[in-house]
Description:
The structure holds two protein chains of two kinds.
Chain A: E1 6-8, H1 10-15, H2 22-29, H3 33-40, H4 48-58, H5 62-65, E2 66-68
Antiparallel strand pairs in A: 1-2
Helix pairs in contact in A: 2-3
Chain B: H1 6-34, H2 40-68, H3 76-109, H4 118-146
Amino acid sequence: MASGKVENRVRELRASGPGMTQQALAEAVGVSRQTIIAIEQGRYSPSLEVALKIAAAFGEPVEWVFWLGV
Amino acid sequence: MSDLSFHEKSAWGTLLATWLIGILYFNSAWDMWQAGQLHPASNFGLAAGLTALLVAVLVAYHMLIAVTAKPEDEDERDRSISRRAGSIGGAILTVGVIGIVFQILIGGMLGDPVAGSPILIANALMAVVFIATIVELSLTLYFYRKGL
Lengths: 70, 148
């Protein structure tokens, strides 16, 4: 049974490969850097639109980047 | 302050300024009331003067933070926080205003002269607006720090 809390691997994906700053990801997605920080720390669950944009920025499927915690 | 967004800095400054000027207003109004000097004209002067001071302080503060950090457009998180804090602040305002209306009507039916005092009604409404604003801004900051 899922806990209902949305978890993510945004920080991990950002740090992998060539790396991407929070600011660069924020600009790519159209949110503030503080919103990216809040998403990485699990303090904010983004809308579907922003989740899809973040997944697209990493070239990954959205369900790989975000999932419901157990 | 560097990890705070423009909107969070704005909420901090607005909370602090509203709190300080609100306390100054209610302290002064209370002192004038005790001295028998709180009349509609003097109350209006006090309220108008401190409102102008609050506006001037907030304009100066926002100019300062706009110089140190570029103002950003609201994103979806800012809007969610603003909506949630605003709805709670709005509920407090509604309950407070309805409470004052009932106080006036019931006091009037019972012949309570205090219930019809414009000074008391005005200051009770000011207190409700003050409390609702403080709660809304405090919740805004709480949601920014702890999450929605």
